Fold:
Amino acid sequence: MRRIDFEYDLPKSQIAQVPLKRRTDARLLVLDRASGQIVHTRFASLHEFLLPGDLLVLNDTKVLKCRLLGRRVPTGGKVELFLLRRLDDGTYEALGKASRRLTPGAELIFGEGAVRARVLERKGRRLIVSLSVDGARVEEVLGQVAQVPLPPYIRRPNGPDETDEELYQTVYSSHPGAVAAPTAGLHFDSDYMRKLRSLGVQFTSITVHTGLGSFRPIQTEEIEDHKMPAERFDVSEPAADTINLARDERRRVVAVGTSCVRALETVAQGDRVVPCAGETDLYIVPGHRFRVVDAMLTNFHQPASSLLVLVSAFAGRDAILGAYAEAVQRGYRFLSFGDAMFIT
Structure:
């Protein structure tokens, strides 16, 4: 299929720039795959479309503060580092931006010298850097100096504020490692999760450290030629057992977010999942046979993106683009801080 087949007109005014103060106030579009029926409601009414025994699979990754703004030594030129992940030897894989190309040996400082960095190696666009601080753990100082990595389409001339730091994080996040939020989960608050549990809805968690692949557009003419960057995941034995029990009892497995979908489909064997930790570069396109996921909660995605292709594989391209057209017409808020969609 062609990339142009997944284009749609998204007005800039409908790209949500600020989070809602109350998470559950987001709008919710419910799409029934079997009938094609669409219902427009609020996220706080999600329970009306869930059944007792439904199992919601959450991604409990925690977004790192990983965007560093600083200067080059000794020239003082402005520089930005975007830390992608910590490597086993204590160094970091990062993206860098500066007026002059960053090459091995470059020295950088951030936070008035609280964090010092040295470029060790360059691999294409990616850097390997060492970070050092005085008298503390690097991660602790990064929490004070680095910024929350908001997506490029969210404009913050003065940088993210405290509201962003709170609301660009799920209330159940617990395992640091993501550089982008698993946005479908941003709509839950603790009170609503308690309500769902009281109605017989069940939860389990897996960990998928969401990466920049969330924002990487498809640039190939044929969507099948696109390559997905790998993301680290961990499906624990207790989580796998809980999911398999739901499958055995014919209860619905509801993936909260596309990151959960990719991880679950990666570890699926038949209609069951096996506990596993590793990396997945699974790229789900139309024609994929979903083996574990029965329903999906997701946000609205960018035109011609791998995430839009994934939800189209799940519900059908025409159904998804039709639902998106209705959402645009009705003024829904799109992308990371936007509204939600429940596909059954």
Observations:
- The domain at 3-63+166-343 is CATH 3.40.1780.10 (QueA-like).
